[in-house]
């Protein structure tokens, strides 16, 4: 499982420098943590914390502050999550069967596996599965209350790491009650174990409460509203649900321009066979007779995740487009739990044959979405050398500050190791104010344009510079273009002071 997890994700891991600015912010904060600068909140965030940055800092201390170390920190977290799911399931089904059950966590569509390489959320997801694994011990005769309390603490600490983990709390509570009752049918003993878990959650809530009461915190991201129901349902039906189920694949043409992939007819057939087989397995999981309670309760936790996740998606004001499929990840991560009763009822070999079409469909869809790092079965490398070459040229010209679109600014700052420092072109997109202060004090600066990431075109930037009447020099490295401006930022009206 460990080997498969790494081999399947080699393309994005080898091209780690191709990361986006949201992930790069985690790496930048990790660099600052190693210098003794600490903050509870993630740079520029009002709700995400620096837990992922702390994890990345530990990797940086060993491997150095590189994009590879940043992506590795997230991927290892996902591998740990996979092993925790396996360890939980292996208590109730054979080890071979548990291995087949967790394969959807390894071979999965891009909408799901993107979280495995997305540092701002991975720590929270790993903590959720650590809580599920520990709470599963609440059905044991010895140490049940201790495990219940520890699992309760972990579940709320996960929410502290990222509010996305809140969607798992009802499922964790259900898992706690089922495990506590399954270990002893005595009402008093069950209540004591559940109570220990609740006490653990209360204790774990303390850092979360301090975060929510801090002046910089904002809670709008966790609210639900009926006003977005029709809008979200259309996106769910047309884009997000097909993507996570594998019947539709979005892949980038170049970098961030994801469009539907036109799959060959044979792949389309496997996609639909896979989703039909998956639906059949879920029906078997819900209604199969003669399944032990211990296995059925694990399945119920996974099955309840489906309406809970879909309901949260439909009422969330954060749903915007097909990329919002990431908000359906909870039910896909708990898919191994949901399928456990079916695997038990069918036995390992029959279950393997039934789930194989979905695994093939998901694996193909995920691999295609790694483009441009993949081309067919081949893995392409050295795609990110433009960044290194551009950084070297700017430093050679004595340019140590720059400006760019948000999706270029922070990823380049991280790849450049803060030399040059690149700030967003809009003040409202600042994630770390001291960068802006360094930029304002700078002399000559560069305006960076990435042909496939920047919202503004090279032509637009050139026209604006010419209108400002400043001298500039154009340099180019692959898909990156830099306009080196021979004037301080404050001398470029309408461009460097927005």
TrEMBL record:
Entry keyword set: Membrane, Transmembrane, Transmembrane helix
Regions that span the bilayer: 38-62, 68-86, 98-116, 150-178, 190-212, 265-288, 300-319, 325-344, 351-370
Organism domain of life: Bacteria
Name this protein carries in UniProt: Glycosyltransferase RgtA/B/C/D-like domain-containing protein
Species of origin: Pendulispora albinea
């Amino acid at each position: 499982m460990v080997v498969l997890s790494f081999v399947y994700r080699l393309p994005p891991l080898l091209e780690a420098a191709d990361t986006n600015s949201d992930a790069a912010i985690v790496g930048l904060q990790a660099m600052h943590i190693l210098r003794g600068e600490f903050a509870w909140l993630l740079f520029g965030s009002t709700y995400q914390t620096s837990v992922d940055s702390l994890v990345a800092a530990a990797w940086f201390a060993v491997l150095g502050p590189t994009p590879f170390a940043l992506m590795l920190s997230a991927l290892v977290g996902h591998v740990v999550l996979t092993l925790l799911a396996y360890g939980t399931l292996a208590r109730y089904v054979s080890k071979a069967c548990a291995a087949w059950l967790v394969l959807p966590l390894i071979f999965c569509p891009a909408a799901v596996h993107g979280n495995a390489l997305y540092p701002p959320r991975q720590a929270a997801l790993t903590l959720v599965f650590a809580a599920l694994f520990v709470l599963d011990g609440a059905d044991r005769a010895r140490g049940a209350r201790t495990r219940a309390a520890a699992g309760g603490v972990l579940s709320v600490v996960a929410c502290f790491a990222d509010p996305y983990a809140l969607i798992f709390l009802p499922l964790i509570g259900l898992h706690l009650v089922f495990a506590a009752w399954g270990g002893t049918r005595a009402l008093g003993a069950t209540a004591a174990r559940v109570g220990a878990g609740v006490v653990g959650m209360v204790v774990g809530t303390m850092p979360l409460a301090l975060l929510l009461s801090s002046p910089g915190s904002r809670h709008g991201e966790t609210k639900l509203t009926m006003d977005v129901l029709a809008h979200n349902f259309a996106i769910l039906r047309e884009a997000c649900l097909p993507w996570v189920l594998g019947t539709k694949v979005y892949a980038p043409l170049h970098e961030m321009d994801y469009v539907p992939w036109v799959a060959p007819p044979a792949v389309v057939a496997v996609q639909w066979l896979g989703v039909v087989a998956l639906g059949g397995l879920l029906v078997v999981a819900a209604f199969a007779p003669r399944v032990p309670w211990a296995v059925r309760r694990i399945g119920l936790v996974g099955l309840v995740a489906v309406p809970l996740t879909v309901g949260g998606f439909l009422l969330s004001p954060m749903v915007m487009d097909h990329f919002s499929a990431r908000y359906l990840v909870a039910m896909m991560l708990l898919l191994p739990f949901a399928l456990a009763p079916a695997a038990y009822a069918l036995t390992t070999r029959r279950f393997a044959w039934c789930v194989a079409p979905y695994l093939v469909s998901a694996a193909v869809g995920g691999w295609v979405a790694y483009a441009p790092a993949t081309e067919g079965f081949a893995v392409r490398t050295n795609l990110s050398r433009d960044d290194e070459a551009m950084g070297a040229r700017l430093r050679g010209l004595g340019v140590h500050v720059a400006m760019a679109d948000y999706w270029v600014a922070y990823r380049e700052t991280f790849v450049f190791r803060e030399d040059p420092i690149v700030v967003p072109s809009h003040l409202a997109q600042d994630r770390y104010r001291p960068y802006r202060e360094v930029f304002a004090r700078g002399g000559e600066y560069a305006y960076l344009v990435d042909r496939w990431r920047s919202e503004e075109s090279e032509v637009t930037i050139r026209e604006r510079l010419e209108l400002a009447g400043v001298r500039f020099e154009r340099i180019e490295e692959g898909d990156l273009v830099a306009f080196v401006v021979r004037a301080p930022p404050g001398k470029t009206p309408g461009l460097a002071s927005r």
